[in-house]
Amino acid sequence: MLYNLSLAWVLFLTLSGVGFAQAPLVPGESEEEEEMEEPTLIFSGMNWKGASIGGLGYFTEGKNEGDFTPVFFPNGGRSRKYAYYGELPVIFYKQVEVEEDEDPAKPPGAPKPPGPPKPDDPKKPEKKKEKKIEYHFVAATSRIDRSWKEVFLLFQENPADPKRPYRVSHINFSVDFFPAGHFWFFSQSQETLAMQFGALKKASLPPRGQAMLLAKLDEYGDLPIRIFHKNRKVYSTIWNIIPRTRTLVFLIPAPNGVSVRRIVDVVQEEKALGLRPPKEDKGKGEDPLREDGN
What we know:
Strand order of the largest sheet: 4-1-7-8
Structural class: mainly beta
Distance between the termini: 64 Å
């Protein structure tokens, strides 16, 4: 009797298809991560001076093509990453809502001249004016090497030209080119600066020059940084080394020598906003011998 019950239980499990080792997949969920189309460029950025920049955006396919993606550039660190699929340069616009019948020669919201008086008609509701969205040019990136796949953008106000309120400079931000553990120095001084950095006892930065250095601790296990101008020490401190980070260092002329501005970036996997799956080829999966209507 025991044998018959055991045999019946085995048959039940076999015929019912019960499995205990594999959980069912959720509909739409795949075991492998979906492959994304490689963009022309991935970018992030910040505003160099002043308040954070909001209210801007770009078209994913370039000039007035594709989705309009809003962007936000903080003033104290790197923004999130964005994907761009169009031709270079990347152009940034400000989205403005205007009334449909406004005179394009007048600024939005300018008062219209009074027309002839109309008789009051309380039964007739006032007709609402249609509104449309316009995209006003704000800034564009300068010439970017097409081999670069990721850049860091620095926005600076440009009060001399109201039509281009920002100037945009860029830095190659690919992890292969600028890996973790490195410090990238940019001198904005018009004169040569000498430097001691960690185990590196002597280095120099030419006028408005740059140098990318791997951080190496000195014999005491510290990362000291000392900057000299004409044999006079103008900056001295000890920095920390944080694993998986890379640092941009800007040396800016100041009355007492130089001031230092650092931007620390954590190297980690981050999905850029705007990434998309590859476009399907037209006609893919169709019968080439099939005629319309048959």
